[in-house]
Amino acid sequence: MELIYQITNMLWKQLTEWMKEEKNQERFLIVCFGISLLPLLVLSFFNHPTMDDFNYGVLTHQAVVNHKGLGCIFPVLQAAVQRAVNTWHNWQGTFTFSILAALRPSIFTEKLTFLNTFILLGLFISGFLYFSKVVLHKLLGLSKEIAVGMAIVVMTLCIQYVPIGMEAFFWWNGSIGYTGLFAVMLVFLGMLFLCKYEKKISAKRMAALLALAVLLSGDMFPIILLSAVVLVLILLDVLIGKQYDKRMKIQLAVLNVVFFGGFILNVAAPGNKRRQAFFQPRTPVEAIYKSYTKSIDYLFECTNVVIALVTIGVFLYMLYKLKNTKFSFRCPLMFTLISYSMVVVMWVPGIFAIRYIPGGRYYNILYYGVILFYIANAIYYAGWLRRRFEQCEAQVQEVIRKAAPMLLGVVGMLCVVLGFLKINIVRDLEEITTATALKSLVYGEARVYHEEMKAREAIYNDPDIQMVEVEELTYHPELLYFGTLTEDPDDSRNQAMCAYYGKEYMVLLVPKEETEGASEEGTETEAETEEGEAE
Q1: Residue 478 belongs to domain spanning
Q2: Distance between CA 451 and CA 377 in Å, rounded?
Q3: Is residue 518 a part of any domain in this protein?
Q4: The pTM of the whole model exceeds 0.85
């Protein structure tokens, strides 16, 4: 036992010594992050198109079928634009989302569905890394290694506790317009912050900003509204500020015109009025008030002990690392109010238009906003505390050294309290996205689902079979299944799949036992109703 203790102690000392260097900390986090993503990437190879993937992909898939080889590229792009035009007239004005939804990889073959996860995670990682490098490295002056490490910490919380993992990284139609373009928005905002910091916009960066402005202006309204608020605030600051030259003021004005031109095109779509007819909107003032109250409830709802501990850890880590930054960190309470208001901005479109948040994909981006809010405030308050006591650093260090046991005890008690309050979220491994993916893989649910879906798709793609009847799937893996065919041939989902695969009739078979049971239950209910009426 003594030998084991000595070996363990030696290895621990070597590890702690190795981890003192920021480059090694970055490497360690990258390796851990990569390992955590492996189950998601493996699970992606069992993925298949589902729900609105067929609805949005009808025209582009037909273009692929009718044109072979590279000759299909232009017809496919033309079909995607046509899909956006049709959606603009009939359902909603989100023109860039409609184009991206129609261009999912699996319109060429279902075998390419695995690319959904690779593309979405690629966008997600790229967006968060770029945003973190701009804010932490360029603006605050921290090292690139710290910026990458903080990005990994934030991304891990976002990915592992995302409300609906399927609608974040597996279902193309539900993911690309929310999680995918949320990451693109981070690149857009990062570029704006960088331009403001450098007090200039190069030609290449202006071209990139214009392209991103067009892309985001045709997306979902939560992302549009947040981008619009930040863009206008930066424009006003640049127009007022004397340190910015005339060229930059004109460039930002042009950028706003392009963005809001796309925004107006999005809002003015006839389809929006048709869709809005199903809902009773709130007044703008009521929507803003409700957004603040509901978002506060959600803040407590989605926060667990892991998120709280990580936030505390980031605060303590940054308290040390921000010692050399020149940023002032003034008015921390104002920063909290403004940063939280940025989260609330994303709530307003849903609360205003349909009075609630529609779908897990919407909650996903709201959750990303909450995590960014926590981490941003942990960093800001750590910086504020450094600035406030930097004149008496030696005395403060002595006080902290003496009070360390008490502080650790308080933090420990806080963690225990948080653990008791939210312990179910920690213990329930299915709340963790990677654990959910592992469960589907280890228990064989993903493999069985994959084999049954491949058998279905062989029938779907057989031109000689026009009347398709399939049995229910054995398993519905949580990260992969969102529904396909139903027992009603007139269901819009069935009709979309008929149009997609060129079939006359597609339906899900219902076992006779279930049908007879439903009939008997219906008869009993009718008899009870008649008896009640007689009484």
Answers
A1: 446-513
A2: 47
A3: no
A4: yes
